[in-house]
Design goal:
The chain has 489 residues and is α/β, with parallel strands linked by helices. The chain is 38% helix and 17% strand. The strands form 6 sheets. Strands 15-16-17-14-13-18-19 form a 7-stranded mixed beta sheet, with helices on both faces. Strands 10-9-8-11-12-20 form a 6-stranded mixed beta sheet, with helices on both faces. The protein has a two-stranded antiparallel sheet with strand order 1-2. The radius of gyration is 23 Å and the shape is globular.
């Protein structure tokens, strides 16, 4: 409760600065009770369905389709039928549709942001300021390339592949949709996209945008369902599969597609090293560490989940980090002051709990700031482990939650060796005042993206993708168009 104390006998001053609740209104979103599959521009009534929840309250939100193999095939046929006229359309005409989609996403951004937070559990300030603006930015960016493919790939006569099957995860639902759909359409392909089973609602709302933009029917098809629907899409009559998700499923898809002639790009997990040198601006680095691992509850493939701190400043950095963690506000995703929202699903919460238990058992020291977690829903407090050895599971495996493992190093060589000691290679962060050291590190880190004195920055013009078990192929930038094109070189 607010305590008032008196300064002299004049102005009462608050001593307790607790925020009042600042919930974003849900009224802007109108949910249907039941959603169909979006096939050929129409809503197809699904044979089977399931209920999608709010992970923050476990409240049922809507019933959505669990598409069968036969229903997936209908979507693929619709995409096939739409392909030739779409591919023949002048690039400048395709661009118009993409620009329209981008503008509609901007116009309806509040509605999308609220729905994203409601269905996925991420803080509204992230869906509002990161997910939705970036989703629109990807459509704007690729709209710009649609009529310039000849310049993008000179002397290659770039041609679209045909129908792209696209399977996306639940951590950035609308953003991953736009990473997949925008370049595919700009290049002249048509698509069948499957959102993740826990977060289908913004993809279904997106179908409304597709209709508003008057896109020719069949160019974008959305089928909801779990891994069985995804597997049916992989086996369908598609020309390419683009997948973002777990390494296990990525490997299974690669095996399944070997020898079929279908193209494939995989964006899989990560266990990124965020490396802090003793000369770094420590307070800024601490902000970067927090953003690196607690952004989106750590449900981020490129999360900075392994922190490497130079030994001379380790104590200072860990102290400051712990102090900063006590100010993180965990709770209602729709509250504008929330920093850490709900864990996306019960299954993901169980995975986090299992790995955290393993960390304790193996001997790491755990710290969690005091915070009261809501009773209903799926929650996990921001967590940091110190005294972590390289061999511990929490230093090796992707946790995909708000859990940081801290390790130390003495020399730059040792930092590189430890950072690269992982089966993954998606991203890394380097914190130092020395420009030459940034370049030296970036050359040696086996990671697709290396951030310097910042973390988790995304831009549609910049390619993103992994080394080793983090997958292959790039998304974003010019590199992100290439996997959607054939061309003689
Ligand atoms: P997942 O890989 O099972 O799911 C990702 C997508 O693939 C979903 O749309 C899912 O329905 C689909 N899928 C599942 N099985 C499939 C199959 N056999 N064929 C085709 N599609 C299939 O990931 P899950 O189970 O949700 O999460 C498990 C772990 O994976 C997480 O804890 C995290 O470590 C990692 N992960 C990494 C992501 C990334 O961005 N790189 C995203 C999601 C999860
Ligand atoms: Mg799975």
């Amino acid at each position: 409760m607010t305590e008032l104390s008196r300064r002299g006998n004049h102005v009462p001053a608050r001593t307790d600065w607790t925020y009042a609740p600042a919930p974003e209104s849900r009224d802007v979103v109108s949910l249907r009770e039941r959603y169909g599959l979006f096939v050929g521009g129409e809503w197809l009534d699904p044979g089977e369905s399931y209920v999608t929840l709010s992970p923050a309250t476990e409240e049922p939100l809507a019933e959505v389709g669990q598409a069968t193999a036969a229903e997936v095939e209908l979507a693929v046929s619709a995409a096939r039928e739409a392909f030739t006229p779409w591919a023949k359309l002048a690039g400048s005409e395709r661009a118009k549709y993409l620009f329209r989609i981008a503008r509609l996403l901007q116009e309806r951004s509040r509605e999308f942001a609220v729905l994203e937070s409601l269905n996925g559990g991420k803080p509204i300030k992230e869906s509002r300021d990161v997910d939705i603006p970036l989703a629109a930015a990807h459509f704007f960016y690729y709209a710009g390339w649609a009529d310039k493919l000849e310049y993008a790939f000179p002397n290659r006569q770039p041609r679209p592949l045909g129908v792209a099957g696209q399977i996306i995860p639940w951590n950035f639902p609308l953003l991953m949709l736009s990473w997949k759909i925008a370049p595919a359409l700009a290049a002249g392909n048509t698509v069948v996209l499957k959102p993740a089973e826990t977060t289908p609602l913004t993809a279904l709302l997106f179908c409304d945008v597709v209709r508003q933009a008057e896109l020719p029917p069949g160019v974008i098809n959305i089928v909801t369902g779990d891994g069985r629907t995804g597997a049916a899409l992989v086996d369908g009559e598609v020309d390419k599969i683009a997948f973002t998700g777990s390494t296990d499923v990525g490997k299974a898809i690669a095996r399944r597609l070997a020898g079929t002639g279908k193209k494939v790009t995989l964006e899989l997990g990560g266990k990124a090293a965020n490396i802090v040198f003793e000369d770094a601006a420590i307070d800024q680095a601490v902000e970067g560490i927090v953003n690196g691992i607690y952004f989106n509850q750590g449900h981020v493939c490129c999360a900075g989940s392994r922190l490497f701190v130079q030994e001379s400043v380790a104590e200072d950095v860990v102290d400051k980090l712990k102090r900063r963690m006590t100010t993180l506000r965990v709770g209602d995703p729709l509250d504008k002051n929330t920093d850490v929202g709900a864990i996306n699903s019960k299954a993901q919460l169980e995975k986090i709990e299992e790995l955290v238990a393993a960390g304790r058992e193996e001997g790491a020291e755990i710290y969690q700031p005091p915070c009261v977690l809501p009773e209903k829903g799926y929650w996990f407090a921001p967590t940091v482990f110190t005294n972590v050895a390289q061999s511990y599971r929490i230093a090796q495996e992707e946790i995909f939650g708000p859990v940081l493992s801290v390790l130390t190093f003495r020399t730059p060589e040792e930092a590189v060796e430890k950072a690269n000691n992982t089966p993954y290679g998606l991203s890394a962060g380097v914190w130092t005042e020395k420009g030459s050291r940034i370049l030296w590190m970036a050359e040696r880190l086996r990671a697709g993206v290396v951030w310097a004195n910042t973390y988790n920055r995304f831009d549609p013009t910049s390619p993103f993708g992994g080394y080793k078990e983090s997958g292959y192929g790039r998304e974003g930038g010019l590199h992100g168009l290439a996997p959607y094109l054939n061309g003689e070189s």
